[in-house]
Amino acid sequence: MQWVGYAELASAVSNAGGLGILTALTQPTPEDLRKEIRKTKSMTKYPFGVNITLLPTINPPPYTEYAQVVIDEGIRIVETAGNSPGPIIKMLKQHDTVILHKCTTIRHAASAIKLGVDFLSIDGFECAGHVGEHDITNFILLSRARQSLGVPFIASGGFADGQGLAAALALGAEGINMGTRFMCTVEAPIHNNIKQAIVDAQETDTDLVLRRWKNTSRLFRNKVTEAALKIEKESSTGEFKEVQPYVAGSRGRQVFLNGDKDYGVWTAGQVIGLIHDIPTCNELVTRIEIEAVEAMDKARKMYEPVGEGANKQGYDKLPSKL
Description:
Layout (H helix, E strand, L loop, with lengths): L6 H9 L4 E4 L6 H14 L4 E7 L8 H10 L4 E6 L3 H8 L4 E6 L2 H9 L4 E5 L5 E2 L7 H11 L4 E4 L5 H9 L5 E2 L2 H4 L8 H9 L5 E4 L7 E4 L2 H12 L14 H10 L22 H21 L21
Parallel strand pairs: 1-2, 2-3, 3-4, 4-5, 5-7, 7-8
Antiparallel strand pairs: 6-10, 9-10
């Protein structure tokens, strides 16, 4: 959600009944993050969080300064992701911050639990952006999380509707995390051409880029990702500098401003195949809630114990309605 997680979208999600998230590194400086937090507070009376993603970079941003702003401004929920989050998590936990950490494998989730995180976001291979290097889809990953983890978790990657929410709950999650779906809402602060490109896309319209350098990202397929992939596959040197101009984040940011989907790379999950409209956040969250209840009610009604050996114990105690 880089270049998308601004106050306009975060506040709209929270106002709709979800948990809106600001992306810290979308802001150029910690002080700019402070301003964005205060702007969000002026737009919603409900809780919202801040994402701090730690990724390998030549010139790392001042993560501790961003975290200090979060603490100073009284934000109680922080989503962390990326490499070596330990120092930031320790700093935030000293101020009783609730930590939601994003993981793409059970091994990484177990390590995060040792660091003291409160909640996990389990990211399946379907997700946008950094998918990890193990290609484990949510159907397996969520069940492994249910079997193995001792802390609550939400499901991330591939969710856009209430049927997906019901499925995630059935697999053991406490809820779902949506990125690409919220990009395609009225309040998302990106060019409408990009929203329409998501609506028009199929689930096959993404590319996995930078796998050669073990920094795999799922991106919306366009002319730039195709050029980057060609270099990645055909380069005889394997030097990252050959592909670097194509995957520059500055070009991706301009996509959301100028509306040219082929101007640079931008993240999108396979869930684009499930997105067919551009609703308000309130319309979307309300619809997902209704769909989830209907899906769970339909599933319950499909169970009918029959025969003398059927397990009828407790069935008569099930509620008639969810």
